[in-house]
Amino acid sequence: MSAPAVPMTDAPGNAARKRPRAARPRVQHRGAILAFVLPFGTLFALFYLVPIGYAIYQSLLVIEREGTFGQATEVFGGLTQYILVFQNGPFWQSIGRVLTFGAVQVPIMLGLALLFALLLDSPLVRGKKFFRLAFFVPYAVPGVIAAIMWGYLYSPNLSPFSAVTESINFLSADLVLWAIANVVTWVFVGYNMLIIYSALLAIPGELYEAARLDGAGQLRIAWSVKIPLIMPAIILTAIFSIIGTLQLLAEPQVFRSFSSAVTSTFTPNLTVYSTSSIPNFNLAAAFSVVLALATFILSFTFLKFTQRKEAK
């Protein structure tokens, strides 16, 4: 008599394969999600993606004429405009100039912003509302107005401080870059201070209490507790400042009226503006694309460097 057949059981792997998969959760309220995303997506595409695409398209075109006075036509020129960009000495000199500008001005500006933010956050300082407003007021002044105001203060013939401006020519070729740096610092210190101060306000008060119980004074708390915790805000302001440095335009443009040392190629953005005024829109578009790439590379490199340093 044969033994009764024993039903074969599936191996664990087979059972797992036969087990029905969990159904994916259905996305609800798709219409509401689309309604919220569509306005931003539309504006982002119209005012960011489309201009970038159009600039790249224009940078690939060249102007051709039939004869000396023939009608100008735009034809595809490949990388012709980019070859001219890399052969343009004044453009690269302007990039080197603003990099030197940023290497000196950005640390000074952010150092002052950090100092003012720490002072406003200190329990030893009185009149915080007044000083917070006083530090921020210069940022409320438009950049062009600020440049005109400081231009008059620097001018030997117009300045109320003629005793100083006659002995030190702030508008000379050696000092005009740092005169512009002073204007930018005056305007943007308060803006960066508010970003850092907002980060300070988000620190829990219990950390300060614990530090004081350990015998730490205000300077020690600022150095060992506050600054490390607000480092992301400081990095954010540094990235904004790097981008703003490479986009410097309003202040040099105004200072051209006060100093002959500020030429039409003094900064990269001024070079783009002057080239488009010739007009040579295709070359100006190529300048813009290269400048945008340089800004992205510099900002991304700085961000990665700081992130790697924080990870250690």
TrEMBL record:
Residues 1-24 are annotated as: Disordered. Residues 95-302 form the ABC transmembrane type-1 domain. Gene3D superfamilies: MetI-like. CDD domains: TM_PBP2. This is Sugar ABC transporter permease. The chain crosses the membrane at residues 31-57, 98-121, 133-155, 175-203, 229-250, 283-303. It comes from Cryobacterium cheniae. Belongs to the binding-protein-dependent transport system permease family.
